[in-house]
Amino acid sequence: MTQLLNRRDLDFLLYDVLGARDLPNAERYQDYDYESFQSIIDTAARIAEEQFLPHNQKADANEPQFDGTSVVTIPEVKRAWRAFADAGLLAARHDVENGGMQLPALIHAACNAWFMAANPSTAAYPFLTSAAANLIHAFGSETQKASFLPAMFSGDFAGTMALTEPDVGSSLGDLTTKAIPIDGQRYNIRGQKMYISGGDQDITENIVHLVLARIEGAEQGVKGISLFVVPKFRQNAKGEFAQPNDVTLAGLLHKMGYRGTTSTVLSFGEHNDCEGTIVGEPGKGLQYMFKMMNEARIGVGLGAAMIGYRGYLASLDYARQRPQGRSMSDRDPRSKPVMIIQHTDVKRMLLQQKVWSEGSLALCLYAARLVDAHEAEGDENSGILVDLLTPIVKSYPSWYGPKANDLAIQVLGGAGYTREYPVEQCYRDNRLNPIHEGTHGIQGLDLLGRKLWQHNGTGQKLLLREIQATLSACQQHPELSEPLRRYQDVLKPFMDTLLKLGEAFVGGKAAHVLGNASVFLDVMGKMVVGWLWLRMAERALATSEDSNFTAGKLQSAQYFMRWELASVPAELERMAQLDDTCMQMEEAWF
To answer: Are 343 and 404 spatial neighbours (Cβ–Cβ below 8 Å)?
Structure first.
């Protein structure tokens, strides 16, 4: 075990729970095996620990600076970026003939977990770049691919997504950035974007912005939005990316966490000389951008899980070494103090962190396994299921990860809020994740307003089939009888409530249903993670020879069913009744 990730736990999730050994059965991954997977993860862990972790605190204390002309980051960020790129990780998921590694999404996610635990702010630069490159690869023209992908894969160029505007926020249909046709695929881009992570920096030669804009004269709303590739520097007469493209940094935003990642306000076309090339067809920009957004949402979930996980390991280590107090049965003031991990309330806080953090990691890795089943094995059902679960994968870890970090601070007591220990920074970093890539409320609306009903509810049926398979497997283990019963006791009312919400949704009460979308998102997140805890406990019983490891999984599953699911029935009752308490609150009453 390191301070970043319990490798025993990661291997258990990959190979015993999610079946990573079967991945080479797919033609795309046939050149891999268990040993090569482990070697790649070892490499990622080494780079994370040697190049990312050492400057995590330094990057937090020394934010990027803007002198009015350029941005300056600490030099360790560039060295970490170069180590990441030189290892081939920027192109890891792409075809070998394109310079990639054809790495399975599951193994790629396992690698990324190390970087997110080590240094989330520096890790943001390569992860955004990979996502931008994936979008260009999927939807860009051959010219765009040839112009940008080789340099993005090599680490010479970085990438960003430029969606949000100062007066628009998440309501992208109201954006005002304009695209004025020049000729062919070229457009003059004019507008301002903000909260653009990595929008300017000094680590790469160029930055490739993916910008949402409305072509002049296009209809209002989301159907009028198009997507454009807008580099910071554009090609000159010699074909070199050296000519400024009128993309101006208006300023840096200063955040409570992720301080090593620049958060920028960018002006496009202040001097009417910003050129972009359109991606795909006009009016389909948001459709294309959702590929990057959904990838980023899963990435945010994994990042939140790992920051929560790191805080858990730090507080666990502290609790094992910090002597304070005595057991309740020891009245002798001359006896030696016990380590605080012996106190029941500390065990409670550690166990709570464990079920949130390990459950969140299992959720994110499960989503990655579905991506492999869909893309490499041709399983359309897996594609439907990962689409359904994406709001949960983003939101559950990003909601409970900061809560885990809050408990980590509490375990350390007064030491927890000092900068001598990492847990206070973990909390500040992680508190951004409930907002990154769409707030909790937006994810709830996406889940309850769209995802559950797509494909005639096929996603619901597929998820229930997966859950029932685990419940059947659990019946073979007497040790799981109580947590199994508790889960089953909640599953039926959950499905009944879902049916009632669907009937109300189509029966003219959509506003009442969606008014409680965030509550539903939380409840369904608990149901999914509860199922995964049963699956982990069952797999530990079936595969592990380590009695302590297995007992830890069983106790965690027990805790989740007794403590986490306990609040679900009351929440289901409120939703089934279409509770309108919040909806009926008047502005003047606050």
So the answer is: no
Helix H or strand E segment including 435: none
Residues 33 and 20: their CA atoms lie apart, in Å, by: 9
Query: How many Å is the Cα radius of gyration of the chain?
Result: 24
Distance CA 366, CA 560 (A): 18
Is the pTM higher than 0.85?
yes
Q: Which DSSP helix (H) or strand (E) runs through 196?
A: strand 186-197
First to last CA, the chain: 50
Buried/exposed code over 53-62 (b: 16+ C-beta within 10 A; e: otherwise)? bebbeebbeb
Which band of pLDDT confidence, cut at 50, 70 and 90, is reported for residue 441? Answer: very high
In the listed set 111, 137, 154, which residue is the last one of a domain according to the structure? 154
Domain membership flag for residue 261: no
- Reduced to 3 states (helix: H, G, I; strand: E, B; else coil), residue 183 is strand
In three state form, how does the secondary structure of 166-181 look?
CCCCCCHHHCCCEEEE
| CA torsion, ordered 463, 468, 469, 474, to nearest 10 deg | 130
How far apart CA 296 and CA 285 sit, in angstroms, is: 16
Contact between 148 and 208 (Cβ < 8 Å): yes
Query: How would residue 292 be classed by pLDDT, with cut points 50, 70 and 90?
Result: confident
**Beta-strand relationship, 225-231 and 275-278:** antiparallel
Q: What is the largest CA-CA distance in the chain?
A: 86
* Residue 160: inside a domain: no
Euclidean distance between CA atoms 327 and 345, whole angstroms: 12
> Is residue 89, in this structure, part of any structural domain at all?
yes
User: How many domains, the chain?
Assistant: 2
Compute the distance between CA of residue 257 and CA of residue 427 in angstroms, rounded to an integer: 8
- The DSSP code for 20 is G
Does residue 251 contact residue 66 with C-beta atoms inside 8 Å? Answer: yes
Residue 238: predicted pLDDT: 85
How much is the pLDDT for 293?
A: 85
What are the CA-CA distances from residue 321 to residues 339, 340, 341 (Å)?
A: 6, 8, 8
Q: What confidence tier does 330 reach under pLDDT thresholds 50, 70, 90?
A: confident
**How many angstroms separate the CA atoms of 115 and 80, rounded?**
10
Domain boundary among 111, 127, 154: 154
| Spatial distance between the Cα atoms of 72 and 137, rounded to a whole number of angstroms | 30
CB atoms within 10 A of CB 441: 15
Distance separating alpha carbons of residues 572 and 492, to the nearest angstrom: 11
